[in-house]
Amino acid sequence: MGLSEDVARISVITALPEAVRDFLGASVLGRGIASGKLEVSVVDIRDFSRGAYRQIDDYSFGGGGMVLMPGPLESALESVAGRDERCVVYPTPQGVPLHQEMVEDLYRASVAKRLAIVCGHYEGVDERFVERNVDVEFSIGDFVLTGGELPAIALIDAISRLVKGVVGKERAVEEDSFFSGMLDCPHYTRPSDFKGSSVPEALLGGDHAAIESFRKEEAVRRTISRRPDMIARAGIMPYLRKGAYVLLLHHPVLDKNGMKSTTAITGMDVHDISRACRTYGVKKYFVVTPLAPQREMVKKIASHWITGYGAAFNPDRKEAMGLVKTCPSLEGALGWIEEREKASPFTIATTARHGAGGAHWSGVKRRLLEMSRPAVFIFGTGSGLHEEVLSRSSVVMSPVSGGKGDYNHLSVRSAVSVVLDRFFGFR
Question: What pTM did the predictor assign?
Fold first, then answer.
């Protein structure tokens, strides 16, 4: 998500209000609150306790430590906002691990309603309070703290970075680790030489293209070495050294009897796949058929949207159709790509037949990040790609699988969108 100018409204319900207030008054958070871009209130649970001792906790039934009582907690929560006007989050080791996408969801909740963060203490809070009031439970790691104040502060700090104007440089936020799905690159400052260790040369020359390339390569290297698990959900298009291409093959493919065949082109494939390619940043969409009349039909369809009436009627479709290129053979298409990219294509064949392909898409993503070759995704029509295409491809991906995995008859248009999203989709 981009940075927003909406005000984030947050309340922290805690037994240690001063600890939270001290942090909120510091540095970036303090400036954000002072500017009105962040609205954060701190509610002391003890203000809602009964009796001279302001008791808010009691012994756990069945033995154990002290547990926060549901009554004072619920009264404090109700003072913040009504049930329909609040989103309640509770930091706990039993919660979902906090990640950037969850931070963004909770930021949206803080704009639409009021985000109430309930800080546990001792052994936690009475489970009946959780069941009655809490919308989201989150954790900042597999360890136990003495209270929920530190996780609450961490969440507020992460949310504050999404509010426009709180962090000085918006681009710094967008380049942060996790914002784009990859880890951040390393950063350096003066002196350029520190005890014999120098700043990388690429950062010293003032060549902005070289600097950008260095930072992307370092982000990839770090992510692969430190957090390879992140690759599966990262959109890798900005980090590829070469372009990505889609080939829709109409020959050689299989007919329903498993024989080598040539299939007819459909207009829907031209329209829908070109739009998917434009959405995910594919450089060219090749429609490959040896039949000249079929190639002419594709050109006529594309021309209507590029130079004809359709160009003015729907400029977005014009952009998508501009990616379409016809070619009489697979070899010709690959040759065209190699000439433009100055590198041999890495061909990724797709199939719906189990047993024909063995490479999982997440592993293929990693391979693309590690090489300097254009990625070419080959999709078949009819009953799928012929063996001669599969055998000569760099890799054959395992089939796209759905719910039970026992039905696999997606249209090629759907399969293209699924595959492109897995490789290049993010958020």
Answer: 0.85
